[in-house]
Specification:
This protein has eleven helices and 13 strands. With 377 residues, the chain is α+β, with helices and mostly antiparallel strands. It has two domains: 149 residues, no CATH class; 190 residues.
């Protein structure tokens, strides 16, 4: 008991040590457009001011706010940092960088971004373009570069994601085929659910009681694995169906909700799912909660898909690929969780330590996320 009380006492420290968990992971956005009959590539690069401030200390007066004047004074440093972290080459010849326009600012769902307008001058584009991306990898291994690559004479963009495990990639001069598009977005879907801490905690909060049954107000271990598995299937199916509906509607532009509202509602869903484990209010109907709140989580998935960019010529494939990827990522989590939870279901460690204390910690952490998102802390 003393160990659990100590862990609870340390929770505020853990929350403040990981503020980035409350928002989506660090991303930058690049659009690379090749010019037909030329070796020039027009580049627009959006980089979050919070990331640049972390590396370059843009906030000179230390007031916690980054002004346009502070950004403009460091425009050369920002450009130098960016161009040193993206190398393009064609036919084994490196491309050179020139500035195509002044530094500007733009708003994204998670804050302000510096916008660089650049030109990469390559000797030729007769062979595939090779790219090596390394922005922020040395300070944030979870950072990603989301790239829209438009080859010469093409209007259909190819979506690529650069991460620490995929820092070097080849940008094909010809438009990718349907199976390449499907595979790309499938991988993106798997990756997103694995780094979407709020989505994972919501799902796990609903699944924790699946290996238990409640009798006379007390939790007991489920007698059969098949019963626990059936409860898991109901929750996961309801969550999948719900977020698939809103993901598709939002990605197609049928419904749009403010990002802060969606993120706040997702955090609130984690709080409610975790608190339900302490009170047992919605026993036997957790699939209903999974469906209702899954509709909100679908809007969260859609915002990520929008950031990746949807190829208009292969919109259906991109949607299917991303959604299937999310489901495969979920199934991998469930495949690990269910046998371990079932094996531990009869222990006091699981019923008290995992279910009750774990749910309390999840509720407190998600409450902190909710406050951050509501008040933009």
């Amino acid at each position: 008991m003393k160990r659990w009380l100590l862990f609870i006492a340390l929770l505020p420290v853990l929350m403040f040590q990981a503020p980035a968990w409350a928002h989506k992971p660090s991303d930058s956005y690049l659009t690379l457009r090749a010019t037909a009959g030329s070796g020039d590539i027009a580049v627009r690069w959006d980089i979050a001011l919070r990331d640049l401030d972390y590396v370059l200390q843009l906030d000179r007066n230390g007031n916690g706010e980054i002004s346009w004047g502070e950004v403009r004074q460091r425009s050369e440093d920002i450009t130098r940092l960016a161009t040193s972290r993206l190398q393009l080459s064609s036919a084994d010849q490196p491309c050179t960088w020139t500035t195509a326009g002044p530094l500007m600012l733009d708003k994204h769902s998670d804050g302000s971004y510096a916008v660089l307008s650049l030109t990469a001058q390559c000797a030729s584009l007769s062979s595939a373009l090779k790219a090596r991306y390394s922005l922020l990898f040395d300070v944030d291994p979870s950072h990603r570069g989301l790239v829209q690559w438009i080859g010469p004479g093409s209007e259909s963009p190819q979506a690529l994601v650069f991460g620490t495990e995929s820092a070097e990639q080849t940008l094909a001069l010809q438009a990718q085929g349907p199976w390449q598009t499907l595979r790309q977005y499938l991988v993106d879907g798997v990756w997103h659910i694995w780094i979407g801490y709020d989505h994972i905690l919501f799902l796990l909060a609903l699944l924790l009681p699946a290996v238990l049954v409640r009798r006379q107000g007390q939790w007991e271990g489920a007698p059969r694995f098949s019963g626990a598995a059936r409860e898991v299937v109901k929750v996961v199916t309801a969550f999948t169906l719900a977020h698939s509906i809103t993901l598709s509607l939002a990605a197609l532009g049928v419904i749009s909700l403010p990002s802060r509202l969606v993120e706040s509602a997702i955090a609130a869903s984690v709080v409610l799912a975790a608190l339900n484990n302490l009170r047992g209010t919605i026993e036997g109907r957790r699939w209903v909660m999974a469906f209702v709140f899954g509709l909100l989580h679908g809007f969260g998935f859609a915002s990520v898909l929008a950031d990746l960019g949807l190829p208009q010529g292969a919109l259906a494939l991109a949607l299917v690929g991303f959604n299937v990827g999310v489901e495969l990522g979920q199934l991998a989590i469930v495949a690990i969780f269910l046998p371990v939870a079932f094996a531990l279901r009869g222990t006091g460690f699981y019923r008290f330590g995992v279910l009750k204390v774990g749910s309390l910690l999840v509720a407190l952490l998600a409450s902190w996320w909710l406050a951050q998102r509501l008040f933009n802390l």
